[in-house]
Amino acid sequence: MSDGSRDAGQAIDAALAERMDMTAQGRASGLRLRDGVLSLVLDVGGLDPAGRDALAEKVTQAGRDHPGITDVRIAMTAERSAAPVIVAVGSGKGGVGKSTLAVNLAVALKRLGKRVGMVDADIYGPSLPRLLASEGQRPEAEGKRLIPVPNAQGIPMLSMGHLAKPGQAIAWRGPMAGNALGQLIDADWRGTELLIVDLPPGTGDVQLTMIQRYKPAGAVIVSTPQDLALIDAARAISFFDQAKVPVIGMVENMAGYVCPHCGEVSDPFGSGGAEAEAAAMGLAFLGRVPLDIALRRASDEGQPPAAGDDPVGAPFRAIAERVAHWLDAQRTGAPIG
Ligand SMILES: Nc1ncnc2c1ncn2[C@@H]1O[C@H](COP(=O)(O)OP(=O)(O)OP(=O)(O)O)[C@@H](O)[C@H]1O
Which residues participate in ATP binding (predicted)? Predict the structure, then answer.
């Protein structure tokens, strides 16, 4: 496995990403920072030459005003954003931390300069509104298309949790659930280049609709280290294989518990199982996330640890760099690994 940071550059801190996003009015993408030089792509489609130059000037100035940035390089493109590239996050069984991983992956990818959005495809048990602290919001619609809901992380998102009443049980049959998912994915994602889709656990109708109709660029599989979860993860991998959706790699969650009192590390579910399984299946291993009470608390409060700089978020940032590296390599045709 290569170090994704080589191609992804240095991490873009949240303040810089937000400043560039606001100054460029959502038209900046592909932010990279290397040796103090910030480079980015500016979508100037629909602007006249004076408007284009004024925007480029404002963006350059905003970058230079940021501490540590010595120069700003802008590549202009007149392409209005196409449909976003989809990365699906899946698991063979429930409760392995798939939604937690999906949210923190999205946050960390945004910090790497990607314009990220999220869809909660867990139609029956949506959890993204809680994890991104956007409960109680209702998306508006423009014509027949939904407008994604904003949140404090700057990640536009849509979830059935925003459409159903709080606590309302959603008891749809497969095709209806597939149509509901279609509404979320076909929303107005203008300005979003990468859509992280949190799939429901397992390999049922909703997952099938998703991958047949919307063809993700790749999938990330989350598993805990114990054998039973790994057997289910292997089933999810073969599901994606059959649908010809490349598996970007596997993540092992809840491995290695650090006791908050004595610091002793124990492995309630074992450790290393997912890495061994990935190796056996010829897949990349994207990283290991320890079982950590601080992670659960922060998640429950709608504060994804990947947004901060403390160690709880570090595994997610490393995983995001590998995913960014994979996506960049897909786009440019460079070898992965
Ligand atoms: N590494 C971890 N350390 C501690 N708690 C975790 C960790 N990962 C996830 N959790 C907690 O485990 C619970 C389940 O996580 P999550 O909802 O992300 O799982 P899921 O696989 O998406 O579940 P579902 O099947 O319901 O979609 C949550 O309370 C979450 O905060």
Answer: 92-99
